[in-house]
Design goal:
By secondary structure, the protein is mainly beta. Helices cover 7% and strands 57% of the residues.
């Protein structure tokens, strides 16, 4: 009975976020962590690696936290089909300091960005080997991250992020592991920027089912795909449009291109659109277009921003809606 429940639960959790039929990367673990972060990034097709303006989070590039002008906290909630959940929480700020000598004053800065991604599947119908219902089951998959960045000059910054994964799959079956991201960004001028990011170095799940199965249990290791990204962003002055293109190479026989754009209609209103997961290795793998908007309300000494993103999700009965709130201090 336990064997059947565990197998059904594992398959439901890992495949429900992907379509393994079309790409090898879909069968790799951690698919929830590759869906994006927050309404802004998801609304721009997750093409955010070289973006250094607006509300930032080190999920996309651990080097960009140093460019955050104000302290900002973000919270997000997603509406997904098939009883799935996807939630976000983050905080980003920078630290400015100066060094003085007899001839000049030089300014440098550091940044910190921390956050959580929580995903899961609920209302999984548990059955024993006789087909009798044993009650609903659920899973919880989480990523906790903290990114530290340093601005070595006005044009160049590097950052490193530490990511802790925790997956509660079933009773006495869970996995905890640690991975790393490394990122760099270079500002050619006020309009053009480029970034390099390597994500999920050493990220993996380790499973030990001996407590569940006894002598029939075993130990297994599932490695995440390593993602290598090149991102280029350009800020147009008039009209005020931020355009981004990003190329992603993986060790899972999949290479992607994504595009994103953000239009500053007026001071506090932004419109966004993007296309994610354009697979260069498999033309049958469907891309994921998205769009969204945000509006910021000003108060005394702080601001509150509302974000929304809509994402087309192939093979699902409904598409994705992402809501977000930004608290800017």
């Amino acid at each position: 009975m336990k064997s059947k429940i565990f197998i059904a639960l594992f398959l439901s959790t890992t495949l429900i976020y992907s379509q393994a039929k079309f790409s090898e990367i879909s069968s790799y673990p951690g698919s929830f962590s590759r869906m994006g972060f927050g309404a802004r990034g998801i609304g721009m097709g997750n093409a955010m690696g070289a973006v250094y303006t607006g509300n930032l989070v080190s999920y996309y590039n651990p080097a960009i936290g140093v460019f955050q002008n104000d302290n900002t906290a973000q919270v997000g909630y997603s509406f997904l089909s098939l009883d799935r959940s996807l939630n976000f929480l983050s905080f980003t700020r920078n630290f400015k300091f100066s060094s003085k000598d007899s001839t000049k004053i030089s300014y440098r800065a550091a940044g910190i960005s921390a956050g959580v991604i929580n995903a899961g599947v609920s209302k999984i119908d548990g059955r024993d080997n006789q087909g009798i219902s044993t009650g609903d089951l659920s899973t919880s998959e989480n990523q906790f991250f903290i990114g530290l960045s340093n601005r070595f000059s006005k044009k160049f910054a590097i950052g490193v992020a530490v990511k802790l994964y925790y997956f509660n799959l079933y009773d006495d079956v869970n996995s905890t592991s640690m991975g790393f991201d490394i990122g760099a960004i270079y500002l050619f001028n006020e309009n053009l920027s480029a970034a390099l990011i390597v994500s999920d170095i050493n990220s993996k799940y380790k499973w030990d089912t001996t407590e569940l199965y006894g002598q029939e249990g075993n130990n297994e290791e599932n490695k995440f795909p390593v993602l290598k990204k090149l991102s280029v962003a350009y800020n147009f002055i008039e009209p005020k449009i931020l355009a981004v293109v990003e190329i992603e190479n993986t060790n899972a026989d999949a290479n992607f291109v994504r595009f994103g754009a953000e239009y500053n209609v007026y001071e506090n209103l932004f419109l966004r659109a993007g296309v994610d997961k354009i697979n260069l290795n498999n033309s049958d793998f469907p891309a994921k277009p998205s769009f969204g908007f945000s509006y910021t309300f000003g108060f005394e000494g702080w601001k509150l921003g509302f974000d929304y993103a809509y994402v087309y999700e192939p093979y699902s009965i409904n598409n994705i809606h992402v809501l977000g709130l930004n608290f800017i201090l």
